[in-house]
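Can anyone check this?
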Amino acid sequence: MKYCLLLFFTAGAFLLSAQEINVEIEKMLDLKEAEASKKDQPSITVENRNPFECDEDRDGMYDDWEIANGFDPTDPTDAWEDADGDNILNLFEFQLETNPSDAASPETVNFDSATMDLETLFDEGNGGLIVVRVRQGTYPMSYLNFNSVDYRIMIQGGWNDDYTEYDPELYPTIFDGNYNDEVLYFGISSVADEAGYRFSVVLDGLELTRGNAGFGTLTIINDEANFEGHVSVYNCKIYDGIGPGITLNHRDTGSTTSLFLVNTSITDHESGIIGNQTTNGMQARWDFINVTFADNAGPINMSLGNDSQKDVKVQNGIIRDNGQSSFALPSIPVTFEMSYSNFDPVSNPGSTIVTGNNNLDVDPLFVDPLSGNYKLQPISPCVNAGVDVGLFFDGPAPEMGAFEVPQITSTNSVVVEWTFELVENPVQKNGVIAVNLTKLQDGTNPFLSLYNQHGQILRKQRVDRSGRIEMPTPLTAGTYYISLGDAQQNWVTKKVIVQ
């Protein structure tokens, strides 16, 4: 296989030649082989755990698992890293019970509409694990799976046609319910009351739209005793539905559910943002990080049983203009903490919302909400108003809400001329980037930064001269970003595609 580089400016793209690198890569298994291998993979049985008690840094990964895999149980940002470079973040590897240090784990299936059926693939999570990648396009979808066995599934959209680049903005994967029913429904019930089962759902890079159901466009139900539930919705847009955006029900004794909504928007639903029941001794913990919940007809609606526990934490959120109130909290106290967020005043507080620092109550200045564009205007008070939680951001601080405002600029005061080449790492037999800085203005002392496609920083190094500068981080095929700038801003950023 050969490497080449595609470098994208905001106004266009051009192709640079690169040194050819011969790399031995196994060909993608066909569907039958993938299914056979998956069925042979043993299910990992774990003791049911309470996320309130075994996750010190609240990153969704249990402390002992982090230690066993070389992560830091006191650093919440490592959840958003990708240790083995397989486009599956560390948090998702934990939730799916796969190896975060092995790029071949989990095995993935690239959906091909000519030979595969999406809903049949999704069913393969029953009793085991399925990870499905879906290329760009619009897919009719009204999927319901109510399981009675261990169930782990990841659906990752945002891929280009040949599955060489992941970018949900460039390559949207849209599941369209056509106002018929839920778009995606995952449930678990009727399992023998025995601890050790896991129910994991990971959605990444999807757009879910036009749901029509009493539950929600996305519905996730954990109705079984002694079940351990893990749910992540990451880089997703959920919009234009008749029911609520999401329904999350946790309803049986001894079960726990950990939920992450990250870089995700829920907008324009007629029955509210989130519907929920947490009853019968359930333990639920929700983390909303860089979310936008706006222009829904109703609130985040919670129901909590006397013997249940719920803990909600919001960071870098925009939760506004959702009917009469964005929150309908139960009379039984829940822990609800919000910081670095822009939200409506709470008009019906059944529980106390603990507000941290740097919250706002102002118009977020969306670009065009009437047309469904909930990105921020550059002059929005939410720009650079968030806190660094380990996700990618461009500028002095992250934005509030689900969408970063591009701040990729070349300043007139700093003269930069640069080109790139990909060179072979003779030891690891893969590519590393070499930057050729042919002109760098005197008096500058910038940083050169390399990011992966998720925006996690891979390397940052000081640049003190013009000339050829090699960044020794090994690269496999995928999308990367290289930025040059000082501590305050990036002067110029290029998008790099390694093929």
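Reply from J.R.: I decoded it. Confidence is low (pLDDT under 50) at residues 1-46, 408-416, 425-429.
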